[in-house]
Every structure is written in C-alpha cells, then in structure tokens.
Amino acid sequence: MNISIVCSSKEHPVYPFLERWQLSQQNRHNLELIQSKEQLSGGDILFLISCADLIHKPVRDRYSHTLVIHASPLPVGRGWSPHIWQILEGKREITVTLLEAEDNVDSGAIWAQRVMKLEGHELYDEINNTLFAIECELMDFAVNRQRDIAPRAQSDETPTYYRRRTPKTVR
C-alpha cells in the first residue's frame, strides 16, 4: 500500500510519533512523510496530521482515501487546536475522530473515534503523548481496516468552531 502523511512542520510535537509510525510500517507499506501538499505523489491513503494546508478535491482524488484526525466529537469543535480549547474549558474526556477530508474543514464522514481521558494534572508532554498515541492507533485502524469501513455521516447537531490560537487569543 502507498501511504502519504502530511504534517506541516517537522517542529510539531507529533512529528517524532509520525516518524516512529512510519518506521513501524516500512516493511509492509511504501510511506512518505512530507510537509507540503506540493510533494504529494498519490496512492492509497493520505493522512493529514497537523496539516495547515487545505487539500482540495483534485489532490484528494489522487488517493483512495484522504483522512484527517481531529480531537473533538464532531460536528462539535471543528476548527483549530480543539484539544487545547477543550482542556482550557476543563474537559476530562476528549474524543479523537478519524474522518474523511472534505473541502469544508472537519465536515467529512467519521471512520472511528477514541476517547482520551485526562485526570486534570497532566503536563503538556503527557497530554501530547496520550493524544499522539491515539492518533497512531487510529492510523493503524485505517490502514488495517480500510476495505471494511462504513463511514458514518456526522450528526445533525449544529457544528461549533474553535478559532485559531494566537498569543492574543490564549483564552
């Protein structure tokens, strides 16, 4: 299987997890871990993990599946940095969603969801380690089960959106 992963920055804390995941799959699949949509070659699965680029349909059509991992119980919590916003809201359970990429951000059909449980005392690295391990688990799920997945549409619940975090929008 030919798998591409776009992560916009090698400096993102998820990047080492993606490198380890890539190594764990290298004997079974052809993988590329890249930072820009211009580098995409086409294939079976495209994962968009902490990807700042919008990947439009002509590029997605070069893959059998284009998937995003988003840390919210969609359609609630579309947008930027959802797990950070939810932690600031005091949430102790964060749903991590594997979904199909669409032109409307975070609106695609859902493949799978996992719940990340927090006790409230975790530090930045502990939160990231837990979240990124779940993301890798969802990537495994997609690769291993892609042929028998029956994605489901998001609920009719009114979508909510998180804004982009900047130094001025910390809260």
Structure explained in plain terms:
The chain has 171 residues and is of the alpha/beta class. Helix content is 26%, strand content 26%. The chain is built from 4 helices and 8 strands, in the order E-H-E-E-H-E-E-H-E-E-H-E. The strands form 2 sheets. The protein has a 6-stranded mixed β-sheet with strand order 2-1-3-4-6-7. It has a two-stranded parallel ribbon with strand order 5-8. The radius of gyration is 15 Å and the shape is globular. The model has no long low-confidence stretch (mean pLDDT 94).
Q: How many DSSP E strands?
A: 8
CATH topology: Rossmann fold
CATH class: Alpha Beta
Helix and strand pattern: EHEEHEEHEEHE
CA radius of gyration:
15 Å
In whole angstroms, the N-to-C terminal distance is 42 Å
Shape, principal axes of CA atoms: globular
Low-confidence runs (pLDDT<50, min 5 residues)? Answer: none
The helix count comes to 4
Regarding quaternary structure, what we see is single chain
Within CATH, the superfamily carries the name Formyl transferase, N-terminal domain
| Spatial order of strands in the largest sheet | 2-1-3-4-6-7
* Helix amount: 25-40%
Give a short account of the largest sheet.
6 strands, mixed
Question: How many domains make up the coordinates?
Answer: 1
Strand residue percentage: 25-35%
Q: What is the CATH architecture descriptor?
A: 3-Layer(aba) Sandwich
Strand-pairing-aware structural class: alpha/beta
